[in-house]
Amino acid sequence: MQKHSVYIIVMLLHTYWAFSQKEKIALRDGNEAYNGGKPIEAANLYKKSLKENQTYYKANFNLGDAYYRTAQLIKSGKIPSPDKRMTPDSAANIIFQQAAEQFEVTAKSISNADTIQKAWHNYGNAKLMQANYEDAILGYKKALRLNSKDEESRYNLAYAQKKLAEQQKNQNNKDDKKNQEQQDKQDKKEQDKKEQEKKDQQQKQQEQQPQMSKEQAEKMLNALKNDEKKLQDLRKQKAEEGQKIKVEKDW
């Protein structure tokens, strides 16, 4: 019975060793592909390693590197976008996000301070490439807390803070412009409303004025004609009365 127990333990250890070897072999093959300039192939091998062991955080870290490198190549146009419907920038942005997620998993799951510091630094880099400057700043600050002498993290932090300030300034300008456009539209709408109300009031006043009938208009026209005839007769009479009479000269 004792020998049987030993045999079972040996078999279990052998099985664990076999699975352990699979995850390490996949990791090693992934590293070879990555160093050979094949980050997409490397990413697939790192995912295979994680499939064998989900807590193999070396594979998480390296998968983040592979994603990051792939995103760089897509963004630069050196390799095509995996989705033809997307622009290189849009596709790269998604893969940078995947890289950041792998680095964050690593940083939150291991105890080695040096690796954690590198993971947060790389997290910051991925977020920086996404123009997500607030998260990039967060990553670099965490990296610097673990290694205050890391000049690369310090430089990248200052750069991210500068870009964030520019981004916020541009956003404020856009907001001010948008608010001004909305105010202009509102002012125009109110002005148009006032003009329409004025037109409506004028039309209403015209409608309220008494309308002259056809018969009244004809009477007024005849009266004007009679007045004109009388005026002409008067002028003619005055002209006749004032006409000089020619008298023969008495020599």
Task: Describe this structure in a few short sentences.
The chain has 251 residues and is mostly helical.
Structural class: mainly alpha
Mean pLDDT: 84
What share of residues is helical?
Answer: over 70%
CATH superfamily of the domain at 2-169: Tetratricopeptide repeat domain
Tally the helices: 8
Number of strands: 0
Q: What is the CA-CA span between the terminal residues? A: 186 Å
Task: Output the CATH class name of the domain at 2-169.
Answer: Mainly Alpha
Quaternary state of the chains: single chain
Largest sheet descriptor: none
Structure overview:
- By secondary structure, this protein is mainly α.
- The chain has a domain at 2-169: Serine Threonine Protein Phosphatase 5, Tetratricopeptide repeat.
- It is 82% helix and 0% strand.
- The chain is built from 8 helices and no strands.
- α5 (113-129) runs antiparallel to α6.
- The longest helix is centred in the C-terminal third of the chain and has 58 residues, at 151-208.
